[in-house]
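Exercise 7.
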Amino acid sequence: YQLITPLFGGGVVPAEADPVTVIRGSEIRGHLRFWWRACRGGRYGGNPTAIKQAEDALWGAASTKQGGGPSQVHIQIEADTVPEGAKKAPFFINQDGKLRPDEDVAPAYAAFPLQPSDKEFRARAPFKTVSSNVSFKLTISFPSAQQEDVETTFRVWETFGGIGARTRRGFGALRLVSVDGVRNTDLPPSTTEGTIAWIRHLLEQSVVVGIYPVGMPHLAPTMQFRITVASQDAKAAWKGLIQRLVSFRQARNGPRGRSYWPEPEAIRQITGRRYSKYQPLNHPRKFPRAAFGLPIIFHFKDANKGEPEDQTLQGAQEERERLASPLIMRPLACRDNRAVGLALLLEGSRIPPPGGIILDSDPTTIVNTQLTPAEARAIPVLRGQTDVLLAFMNYL
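Solution. The predicted structure, written as tokens, is:
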């Protein structure tokens, strides 16, 4: 395998690379468990207990009095390499002493968790890095009876998933180079129509059509996805995807105008804090961008002038504060050394999570995320579509 985008994290410490083992077998197994559920979990009639038992039987579980045991799929990592000088920070300090993104390393909007805090910046702490041009060899063994499930899971993982953190925003995207010394030629064409047909065929061959438990993310042969026009390489395709996401999520009335989205005004109304420069707008008290995943941190640059302090939008119930984004965005390597951008909407994972959504400053009030058609028409990028994720797919 080769990674066609940088590796974000991948070690035992979140957001940090492992100093000894670049690619860890336990991490790969974790990704494979998810993708096995996403494409094979439909055969268990929507019973989460049955899915968990089958998953544990194949991929392993901690041994307890109730059962458990090692995985039937043995994974060995060999020759995992990071070229000299390939570890770079997505942010740097320019000649004026200001923090700036390095778009040649990774799109800043995708890499924002690596941006140093104000405290780290003032202390000139070492910046966190990502690793580019990573490659590795994977050797697997498994019972022949499990061959279809295992091979299907690997194919889905390498097409839609990745390694490390923030794979749903394109980090750690995989390209299968060869199998048993034979170069992999099963790559999509670089035409939009050809890639769409290639992915549709993959989904039809890989996904067990059935019932899934409510809230369990999964694939489906008819699921929503979009393919961008081919770019010269994976980095360009990835950058183009993220740029579209930025322009959609930050849609505003002019380059320096106010946001079309209602969340800033909603927070001002809820907290009672407002800088006089920003007069009230007729926005609903709603938080539609929660559809992209939780938590969301809202930062107001004029907090010292009366604007609200940072606010976090999250799930209301304990241990349900987070909601992984249903939107997967990554580049996909094509046959002629070009790449396309892929945006995919997982089925079964939508807002709100059980218990609803809150602002951390007002944990007793459940906020509304659903727009009416009239409210959606007031946000130009939605074009009247009340489903924010479908609107983004159309915008893309």
